[in-house]
UniProtKB/TrEMBL annotation:
SUPFAM superfamilies: Homeodomain-like, Tetracyclin repressor-like, C-terminal domain. Keywords: DNA-binding, Transcription, Transcription regulation. It comes from Streptomyces kebangsaanensis. Residues 36-55 bind DNA. This is TetR/AcrR family transcriptional regulator. The keyword Nuclease does not apply. Residues 13-73 form the HTH tetR-type domain. It comes from the Bacteria.
Length: 236
């Protein structure tokens, strides 16, 4: 009996993967708004009723694709961070940001799914939050390390933003100064703005040498958060 159950589980895993692969192909050709369970089933040679046993609705399939995309992006960022884990915070920050850009350039349609235009009629459930938070938590961890070791300069914050900054710090970055958390949120948004501008063509005929431009920009973002290069005498 266990052998039969194991074979069924493997078959379900394989079919689920095939459904998601075909759906990603549709994203590339038609965009997320036109994703169709019937079209996916047709391309796989399945009847629609069979596909519904794996994904009861288009939204369920979209959610699975979104979580996969966030997890893939998060894994790429975490892998890049591991390679420089012993470096000073600014170098770790830059490595994570460059990994985000590299993943987006390699997976443009999946990037568009999670950071492009919202899909009409679809609202992402809270089950997407843990995967979506992976890059942000990584950047928060880098800044927290710098703060705990005295390597963080608190950026200025207008008085009218203090209450909101304190709320954000309490919600997702307890222990960090509110000034830093407000700057982190802005830097996070600007990081994805930089990537999106490059990916979706807004830099065409404007920025040609994009890799060094991106690196310079994310270092500026790090400075805005309060990260600074570690002086050579402190690295010894």
């Amino acid at each position: 009996m266990s052998t039969v159950k194991g074979a069924r589980a493997r078959a379900r895993t394989e079919i689920t993967a095939a459904i998601k692969d075909e759906a990603r192909g549709q994203l590339a050709k038609e965009g997320a708004a036109k994703l169709s369970l019937r079209a996916v089933a047709r391309e796989l040679g399945m009847v629609s009723s069979a596909l519904y046993r794996y994904f009861p609705s288009r939204d369920d399939l979209l959610t699975a694709l979104i979580i996969d995309a966030y997890d893939s992006l998060g894994a790429a960022a975490e892998s890049a961070h591991e390679t420089v884990a012993g470096a000073e915070p600014l170098a770790r920050w830059t490595a994570v940001c460059e990994a985000v850009r590299g993943w987006a350039l390699a997976h443009p349609h999946e990037y568009a799914l999670i950071y492009g235009s919202p899909v009409p009629g679809y609202t992402a459930p809270r089950t997407t939050v843990p995967a979506a938070a992976r890059v942000g938590l990584l950047l928060i961890g880098i800044v927290r390390d710098a703060h705990e070791h005295g390597g963080l300069a608190e950026p200025p914050l207008p008085a009218e933003l203090l209450g909101e900054a304190e709320r954000m710090a309490a919600d997702f970055a307890p222990g960090l100064p509110p000034e830093v958390v407000a700057a982190l949120v802005a830097a996070w948004a600007q990081l994805y703005g930089l990537v999106g501008f490059e990916l979706f063509g807004q830099f065409n005929r404007m920025v040609e040498d994009r890799e060094p431009f991106f690196r310079h920009a994310v270092v500026r973002l790090a400075h805005g958060v309060g990260l600074r290069p570690v002086p050579l005498e402190e690295q010894a």
